[in-house]
Amino acid sequence: MSTPRTDIEQVELANTAYYEAMERGDFEELTSLWLAPLDTSDDDFEGEGAVVSCVHPGWPVLNGRGEVLRSYALIMANTEYIQFFLTDVRVSVSGDTALVTCTENILSGGPAPDEGEELGPLVGQLVVATNVFRRTPDGWKLWSHHASPVLAESGEEEDEDSAG
After folding, report:
1. What is the mean pLDDT of the chain?
2. Can you tell me the distance from the alpha carbon of 92 to that of 101, in angstroms, rounded to the nearest whole number?
3. I need a labelling partner for 142 at 20 to 30 A (CA). Which of 32, 52, 72, 124 fits?
4. How many angstroms separate the CA atoms of 111 and 108, rounded?
5. For residue 48, what are the CA distances in angstroms to 37, 38, 52, 64?
């Protein structure tokens, strides 16, 4: 594979690495992908440093690297299987900040209810996500992840519209 030449290609790779680390349950890799206070020498980040944030679907806002990473440890400990199929991926770069929006088509399964089974029932979920990255000397790092569930359309409105 060739080396990414543009910022957009580099951000796309960082975004993909985030989802792949989640799929593998690789907490160490996931940790390395998040922005740390020492990742930047920008004057905007003096004092407490760059504060990361995360919103998982249905969760409150998590602020701070420790709180965010604990949430991923909890998710990984309670998820036997997870796979992301990303669609509608859009990347925008402005200076040292990048914004990625996408739809996460998630297939996941928890621990088996009985010891004899390998995996609990698989569940599909549709989530829209916004990932904000910051350029650092070590490459693009995740600054914020915000994911929100997409409510499924029931089709009832269409039936009512066509009946009238």
Report:
1. 86
2. 9
3. 124
4. 10
5. 7, 10, 11, 10
